[in-house]
Amino acid sequence: MQTFKTIHDLRNYLDDLRANGKSIGFVPTMGALHEGHLSLIREAKEENDVVVCSIFVNPIQFNNSSDLEKYPRTIETDMQLLIQEDCDVLFFPDEKEMYPVPSTEQYDFGDLDKVMEGEHRPGHFNGVAVVVKKLFEIVEPQRAYFGLKDYQQMVIVHKLTKDYNIPVEIVPCSIVREENGLAMSSRNERLSLTERTQAALIYQTLKMVKIKSGFATITEVKEFVVKQFRKQKNMKLEYFEIVDMYSLQPLRTWAQSTTVIACIAVWVGNVRLIDNIILFS
Ligand code: AMP
């Protein structure tokens, strides 16, 4: 695996490959890699000649300084995992390389970032858009792989590519879960063993939501979810929304949309976790 820390060296390397007609698949990450990330690498390997993975903990997408500080950083293990997956290129820039001057860019995503993660993490998606656009301009991939776990992020990144005519195909990838159903996340490393077990309730609840969605009203389903977490001492529901998959706007009745996803954010101890389940599509 080729590893680059500077934009200049990475560009030189990729320009040569592109000149030789090679297709480039890109997997942007913040590291602390797990099976979820590796599934993206595998999918990218299948569909492209060359796979580039980036690892950059993007400070401007964190709205909480303690979350940024505590974000796991495991670069040595990450590199071993990428080598095992036969990843071709790792881009691992530092903050100065990505932000030689502080970013002042402001993006407008309409209503897409006024709900859920956007509402609860002010500035988060602007920070995501700044770094993803920069990375797309550096790597110039044909395809970029994003996990459905961060569903709202994927929709917003897709809009970004349309708004700025960035010629990249956004490839959505399935959520990879632990045996107990908990969606894999770098933040899971900060959970105690007991908390990991407790956190399984998130997906259990989402599966119940899917079953109930055939029988109960949206209000009833929401009440069920609130009750599920009210009983838990160490867990706090931040939001649960049933939204249209494309507009991301909350629904009041099932009749309002035929493409529906339920999204959730829950605090387990002092770790914030997100997950979702597609109800109708
Ligand atoms: P992150 O390092 O958390 O920024 O994630 C990098 C990419 O991996 C994003 O596209 C995420 O949606 C994706 N990802 C993270 N966790 C999972 C998972 N459990 N299953 C599938 N994709 C994931």
Overview of this protein structure:
- The chain has 281 residues and is an alpha/beta fold.
- It contains ten helices and nine strands.
- Strands 1-4-3-2-5-6 form a six-stranded parallel β-sheet, sandwiched between helices. A three-stranded antiparallel β-sheet has the order 7-8-9.
- Helix 7 crosses helix 8 and helix 9 packs antiparallel against helix 10.
- It is globular and about 55 Å long.
- 34% of the residues are buried.
- The structure holds adenosine monophosphate.
- Adenosine monophosphate binds next to helix 2 and strand 5.
Order of helices and strands: EHEHEHHEHHHEHEHHEEE
Uncertain segments are none
Q: How many domains would you count in the coordinates?
A: 2
The helix content, as a percent range, equals: 40-55%
Summarize the structure.
The protein is an alpha/beta fold and 281 residues long. 40% of the residues lie in helices and 20% in strands. It folds into 2 domains: 2-173, HUPs (Rossmann fold), CATH 3.40.50.620; 186-280, Pantoate--beta-alanine Ligase, Chain: A,domain 2 (2-Layer Sandwich).
